Amino acid sequence: MSSDTPKEPPARGMLYDPTEHRIRSFVTRAGRLSTAQARALEEQQQFLIGYEKAPLDYAQAFGRQAPTVLEIGFGMGGTTAHIAAAMPEKDFIGVEVHTPGVGSLLKLIGEQKLTNLKAIQHDAVEVLNHMIPDASLHGVHIFFPDPWHKARHNKRRLIQAPFVKLLVQKLAPGGYLHCATDWEDYAVQMLEVLSAEEGLQNTADGYAPQPAYRPLTKFENRGIKLGHGVWDLVFSKK
What we know:
Strands 5-4-3-6-7-9-8 form a 7-stranded mixed sheet, sandwiched between helices. Strands 1-2 form a two-stranded antiparallel sheet. The protein is about 30% helix and about 20% strand. The protein has a single domain (about 35-235), classed as Vaccinia Virus protein VP39 (Rossmann fold, 3-Layer(aba) Sandwich). α3 links the parallel β3 and β4. The chain contains 8 helices and 9 strands. The two termini are about 25 Å apart. It is an enzyme of class 2 (transferase). This is tRNA (guanine-N(7)-)-methyltransferase.
């Protein structure tokens, strides 16, 4: 997440926000809504938290005091719902920009009657800057962010030093940051960036074993069968 004004026009499909002076790390896709996703977006509004430029009161949002975990870019929400169901003692907030994914997660929340999971449909950097109080998060999950695999697009990757510093600011002491990727060169970059952040310490010697709470996705299983690697990184705030 560069804070510098870009010296070249953004790639096609990329949004440059002149008010934030940064290149976004995601492409806005309209996507196709299924009937079930559209229905969930209409009927499960209670599980959506609207974006505001004001600190979010977790206790008010969930009706209780509990450790809060933020997931950035939850895709279609399957992993997010699985983890929330397995950890009822924690509250989870998923942030995603794409409407089909939000609809899919809301559908899962309703089907599984999850009371500890809510979604915000907005840019994660703005949510972090304006809605997440400092030193308030128990954990942050970032699973399989867009690798921007072309070298000229590497600067658009989410895991960059300024963004990691912002995450550390939002983590409570002892809170953790869990990243996962199936692109080896991105894993190498993640390890370098996270290791260089003075506010973090690695919980493993290099890459971490896959934590038991993170399920394998169908995509990940398919990749593993084809011999592709997956790298988990788990760091804690000092």
